[in-house]
Fold this protein.
Amino acid sequence: MIHHVLLASPRGSEDASRAFYAGVLGMTEKPKPAALAARGGCWFTGHGIELHLGVEDDFRPARKAHPGLLRPDLDALADRLAAAGHPVTWGDGELPGMRRFHTYDVHGNRLEFLAPLD
């Protein structure tokens, strides 16, 4: 079982992370422990996953590596992302038993969202 997934973000991007992960994805920000808060970044939880956004001074977005996140509201989420300016690329059925799409967060990190086929 995974406790959390960490994605990199540029220094000073916490407000943009909040707007995307809480505002668009509907996750809840989780307070960082005081000993870690000074490092920057922010943590989010929701939909069965905890995501940490950690600051990297030489930040480069993960364009290939990505978390695969299960979401039962796949179509509604895809619509919300597209409306917020985050293009969605649907998979072509190559993952048996799953519907899925890819998008990129506000920092350019690749994300995959999946739901089992009925």
About this structure: Residues 29 and 44 are 4 Å apart (CA to CA).
